Amino acid sequence: MSTADKDNLSFRIENAEAELADWLARHAISLLRVSLGVVFGWCGALKLFPGLSPAEKLAGLTISALTGGLLVPAFSVPILGASECLIGFGLVSGRALRVTLAVLLFHMAGTVTPFALLPGSVFADGPFVLTLEGQYIVKNLVLVSGALVVGAAARGGARDRGGRFAAEPGLARRGPPGGVPHAR
Prior knowledge:
- By secondary structure, the protein is mainly α.
- It has helices at residues 3-47, 56-66, 73-93, 97-111, 114-117, 119-122, 132-138, 140-154, 171-174.
- The longest helix has 45 residues, at 3-47.
- The model is unreliable at 179-184 (pLDDT under 50).
């Protein structure tokens, strides 16, 4: 392969990477928002039908413990499922996003309470060995982080010193602020 061919191939690869980065900059936040909505909607829908959700028992016990037994699982789990479906709808549709994200974060705060209220359900052998339920709860950190990114983007956050959104289209071609732009 000649030097000119290598340079042309290198240019084409770099250009393809920049095009992909531009596409991701335009669509990644929306894809994240919709995927979060699908996860919430799906998990919520399972809770509407007794026996389908793997989290049903733990969710019911947790809500019962939080309410001092006032809300029994047969009542609270479908309510929880409906709220998760509403969160999912809000995320997928992009409507009432502030309210949706606030409800999501409130909901996520509740999901960590089994660590304090029902430690036998989330820890197997010692404080660092999680049960499947404990792992289910810990993965919620990813959902919370995703929700924070979506919320920051919706409010115009995540901007660099030049006022550009952190994943703004064309940034891959221009290079970092004050840095050396990519050679073309």
